[in-house]
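Homework-ish question, so no full write-ups if that breaks the rules, but can someone show me the predicted structure for this set?
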Amino acid sequence: MAEKSELQYTAEHEWVLVDGNVATVGITDFAAGKLGDIVFVDLPKVGATVAEGKIVGEIESTKSVGELFAPVAGIVVESNDAVADSPELVNSDPFGDGWLVKIEFTELPSMLSLDEYTALTGE
Amino acid sequence: MPNPFISGTFADRHIGTDDAAQASMLAAVGYDSLESLVDAAVPPAIHQTPIVNSTIPAPASEREALAELRALAGANKIRRSMIGLGYYDTITPAVIKRNVLENPSWYTAYTPYQPEISQGRLEALLNFQTMVADLAGMTTTNASMLDEGTAAVEGMLLARRAARVESPVFIVDADTFPQTKALLANRAEALGIELVEIDLATLGANPELPECFGALIQYPGATGRVWDSSEVIAAVKAHGGLAVVAADLLALTILKSPGELGADVAVGTTQRFGVPMGFGGPHAGYMSVRKGLERQLPGRLVGVSQDAAGDPAYRLSLQAREQHIRREKATSNICTAQVLLAVMASMYAVYHGPQGLKRIAQRIHHDTAKFAARLTAAGYTVENETFFDTLSVTKKGQAQAIAAKALESDILLYVVDADTVRLSFDEVSTQPYGGMLAAQENDLAEAFGLEGGFFSYSPDDTTIPKDLNRTSEYLTHPVFNTHRSETSMMRYLKYLADKDYALDRGMIPLGSCTMKLNAATEMEAVSWPEFAGIHPFAPAEDVSGYLVMISHLESWLTEVTGYDTASLQPNAGSQGELAGLLAIRGYHRANGNPERTICLIPSSAHGTNAASAMLAGMRVVVVACDDLGNVDLDDLRAKIAEHASEIAALMITYPSTHGVYEHEVREITQAVHDAGGQVYVDGANLNALLGYARFGDFGGDVSHLNLHKTFCIPHGGGGPGVGPVVAKAHLAKFLPGHPMAQSQHHPAFDMQTGAAGPYVHAGGAVSAAPYGSPSILPITWAYVRMMGSAGLKAATGAAVLSANYIAVRLREHFPVLYAGDNGLVAHECILDLRPLKEATGIDNNDVAKRLIDYGFHAPTMSFPVSGTLMVEPTESEDLAELDRFIDAMIAIKEEADAVAAGTWPADDNPLINAPHTAHSVIAGDWDHSYSREQAVYPLSSLVSGKYWPPVRRVDNAYGDRNLVCSCPPIEAFAH
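A: Not a homework solution, just the prediction itself:
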């Protein structure tokens, strides 16, 4: 699990860990808490081309549905199968084992820092 | 102050609060009369003017109303229907009729959103799902659909979203029921789906099909034909499409299942499993899917989870799929199921078991085969060489004559064309020990001019292709193999009913649901044979009683809402919404404005509104609400300006979903009309308005009503419903028509003159039957007939008084969100529990579950505002019950305060551990921080007549993560 301060964030409550030209994407603990008990995640297939800001998946809890947006444009190089089998990982370890997809990108858009994101959620 | 209008009448029994009670409640609220209270709450600009020449007669007594219903019933003619087409006569086992259909423990329950107090009907629905999945050879079945036609539509929509191909084409087998074709055509048009009709059975081996996202195959076909569709199904799937099979469940006891043929989806009806035809409904449709498509199922789905003690417990699964969560992103607008009818159908299978069902099917098939042999011997041609129960018989130019002759003996045949009649055999035409009823056989023989004499037939003869004989097992679960004696059956039904909390136990104060009295007199006529035993496509002259009753209702409903015409066809509120929006769509297109497709919907609207708009081919634009919960007029004007000539409609609920009479409603409707849009007023909250204001008077063009809310049709544990659509004259011709309707006119009979009414509904069909679910319309008819206009108005006043009384009494304990003119609410109030959670950690879910320990069904949770409870007492509850509820809420607040004060730990207190079963307070050592008495008898009044929940708090996440939607093995229940 990465330090929260090393991550970048989006207004859609996603975090992004950049390693070379691959971005690992998950949702924040704030988003997981708001959704409640997550029971299903629908993730894009490996090899899929995704456009920045577009919906690429769904995260469903017992009471609501959250959409997964691609924070960067690129190609999906890995989808977290463990989360597909055990969606509760997104609740128990949102910044670690609960990661969702890895996207290979060529260009990185500007995102929020931890401080900026924290200011956004007001927590 | 005496009630001015009545004394000792039905209205006095329907309305729970008497004069003395109302006087003390009015004093608490601060008004001196009911009239002054409602006048202060309802904005003056919309007060209705007195109605002259009302069509609603002065109230009848219960005896008088029943006598008039007897007269109406007498005007219907019961004949032996052999029309078929998805509706077959059936024998309702008396033990099911008496213990389910006529038992308020089943019919007055609500949708099982609170699983802990709904385990009985959840188990019955799980039986239903297991029964259908077994027979259809599928994996997962939902908790029922509205009817076969809408199930077929939902099958088409499911195929489109799950298919791997982008094609807009959906193939419909030519041998499909005509009403199903009509529904598919109507719904496909609005969504840009192209229907292609093909006679699939004639394609032969290696069938060539156009590219399509799916296909519907009727099995057996409408002609009666039984054919092996596995190659066609394989061809559909080879394209990446999905195969939907509309199958007759009784036939599937002897025919290979759709699943074994390779189908992805099976749809149909369970009507012939002991549910009377009822001139079209209500019945439970079904939809069942193969593994991998569970999440695509529309509607409600019962699943197995576990409770806080780790014991198996049932609940509604995957609720996040539903339209109230997904709104305009929803894939279906279906909310209501047909629970009461699904319970009856499942119990028919429990009663007969697999062998019994198979015997019934075999007897029917043998009768059919025997009669086919007679016909053939006499020179007739049976068009379909294969069949289960239906024969299409041709003789040049003779069809009308044969049908006329049969009619003389009170037998109804279906005339297909000049040369062809069709007849379907059923459970009622056969004898209990085999062989067709002699009288019916003789009458039929006479109609076809058959002589006595020799013909070749052996009971072993069957036309069913060898490959289609069913060899796989079904209904092997013990529940379908245990209750063979009537004693056992009766006790099983009682065992299940005892687990549930329905109106026969206490108040169900669910906001927006209007859980009012379903009076016994209103229910009486539902099972009378003259209403129950009528085929939906019976000739008009056989159904005069029904058409008169429906005419009365159309006249009454339009009068009380300020509209011109009504259609009773929609089987649920959601279908009424769809019909109303499709009418608006038709209107704009007819006026040369096809670009008007934007539907404005306030953010406070029920999610179904948005889902219905999408399915009517519209795009949703959300209008903001202000801090008071009202439509933000500035935002509305901005959205209108932005979309100008594209505005199709505004959908608004009145009073609002916040339970408030919006002051500005006339300005809102005017702004939409000025922009060329139509105004749809959602009638979900009509119980706050009846007699005081009318939708049509303040700008509504079209509305749907919920007869299962305002007009006393019971909720049935989650269906049936009736969602009539009412409209102004300019929309009349776009309201739902039907290819088999007995009358094109609405009303069929004008109440004053008796002549055909002035309006013709020529839009597409939204239900399988022309008048939807007529057999439950006597309930609403009796209610209006016994209340009269003054009684209806008094009921509204009493409902508004009760809601305001609760708001006033509870305000110091829980903030009441939103109020309208003079600080008053309408017929419901929203209690804000977010401050309680902030202060004590106890949330609205804990309070809802603790209410069970206090003997109450929880109010509506987190709608329309998250973290709140919405309370709607209705006019039917008396003051003692209202006070009991208020006392319970105050006591629970004190318990929460005790948690905050540290008296009880945050992780072990009576609230978070609620509800408490008997077992949980008896078994083992008691090591909680509070006493056993505090757990289950927190108020001394509970000691006599306590409701005991059968399970502890149900784990929602467990059930969704481990989806099981059929009966668990008995071993799962071993402690």
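Now go work out the reasoning yourself. Hint: The beta strands of chain A are 8-9, 14-19, 22-27, 38-42, 49-50, 55-61, 65-69, 74-79, 101-104.
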